[in-house]
Amino acid sequence: MVDGKYDVIVVGAGPAGSMTAKHAAQKGASVLMIEKRQEIGSPVRCGEGISKASLDEVGIKPDKRWIAAEVDGAKIVSPSGHVFTINERMAGNEVGMVLERVLFDKALAADAANAGAEIKVKTSAVGLKIENGKVRGVKVISHGEPMEFEAGCVVGADGFESQIGRWGGLDTNLKPNDITSCFQYRLTNVDHDFRYCEFIIGSAAPGGYIWIFPKDEYTANVGIGVLLSKIKSPGQVKQLLDRFIAKDERLNKGQPLDAVSGAVSVSPPPDKLVKDGLLLVGDAARIIDPITGGGIAHACISGMHAGKVLGEAAQEKDFSEARLMEYENLLRNRLENKLWRNWMAKEKLITLSDETFDKIIQTLAEVGVEKMSVGNILKVIKSRHPELVKEFEDLI
Amino acid sequence: MIAVVERCMHCGACVGSCPSNAIYLNEVILSFNSDCTKCGRCVKVCPVGAIRMEAGD
Ligand SMILES: Cc1cc2nc3c(=O)[nH]c(=O)nc-3n(C[C@H](O)[C@H](O)[C@H](O)COP(=O)(O)OP(=O)(O)OC[C@H]3O[C@@H](n4cnc5c(N)ncnc54)[C@H](O)[C@@H]3O)c2cc1C
Ligand code: SF4
Ligand code: SF4
Fold it and tell me: Would you identify the CATH topology of the domain A49-99+176-265?
């Protein structure tokens, strides 16, 4: 017994899923998007920072309703307190804003519905329907009732915790060096500089960083990411953040409005993102930027490309791996080099000592960088500490 | 035996990190299946320390 048939079933209504659903539906595909939570976008599991440029790229018009704050730039703070400030002149359109993801995710889902996609909430995928080795649909529990749906293609947009790919035979397993474990509070009654996003690097957050992203004058997302391979004891990630907040004068009178845990991948992209009747987008496809841990922009980019290809595939009634490779190729052309380069840079950055971070940030702060790019940063560091740049030179 | 305590925030960090894909999380309930090899990775990755490995099966 089947409860419904669609060209495309998208599992997960985050940015990647909604963008996929919207673009596929716009091209006439019949689309069902399912979300296990009872409310799309909530609870938030994100620091909510994104650059303006990345929204332009995917055709999302900034809307005051889901922008919490627009910042002038970013501050990178070294272990002993040197501050390198990246302002709008240096960063161009890469300068940031801080979203209201509860509303942003809903706005993208509404766009998908507007384009013709059906949505079901409180509906978890619990397995795939696989016949003769081919993915034919998805088994779900919807508001407590077991149901089965058939699809030309199932899209895994199920975030970091993704199981769709692994259930369907796409290997998305990660190595301990490629997983960052995160914890965050939305703290109010804090005294941060709300014009800047702040990143604190070094041993306060082994293999990752602490972030302070402003929501308004009194409130900020204050979070930490620690590389799994550097975690020493269970629960250490939350403990490290609590300790940092307790010692920081600007933050230690803050009170939490929420607490968030989660993880991000900081890996190279997987070998394969498509199979007959199966495709992965967003965090499920392991395409988070390995340096920043940011994944909203890449989720939107992958969803846009996937949706367009799936819409055309639906017209041709061809969801074979060969057909879906068009998506994989588009995505690799756009992101593959960047992901590999940033992954290699991450592999080096996680080996640096606090002393080295201090030297680097102090140099950047004193010499300054005309226009932000990896090449320019390395040039500035080389001018004072050629020994530090040697290892990174192959990245230019 | 692997067990999850009330500290759990239902975030899925453990689910995505499990090399055996042995953990399932519906919106709020975390469960472990027999593919678990007791490697301990989920215990470590959990940001709040909500998973415990206990003696016995
Ligand atoms: C603490 C933290 C801070 C972060 N900060 C930033 C930041 O500042 N900037 C940035 O760009 N990125 C940040 N990220 C990463 C960012 O949140 C993700 O990259 C982004 O949300 C990816 O979007 P997505 O659509 O792929 O997945 P998600 O937004 O995770 O959406 C996946 C959806 O799938 C649903 N789902 C999962 N399994 C099933 C199932 N079996 N059945 C039905 N539904 C299912 C989930 O409930 C979820 O709603 C952060 C991540 C964390 C954990
Ligand atoms: S990682 Fe920890 S908090 Fe998150 S779902 Fe697993 S047990 Fe719960
Ligand atoms: S102990 Fe290892 S195999 Fe078992 S659930 Fe945890 S991560 Fe998975």
Answer: D-Amino Acid Oxidase; Chain A, domain 2 (3.30.9)
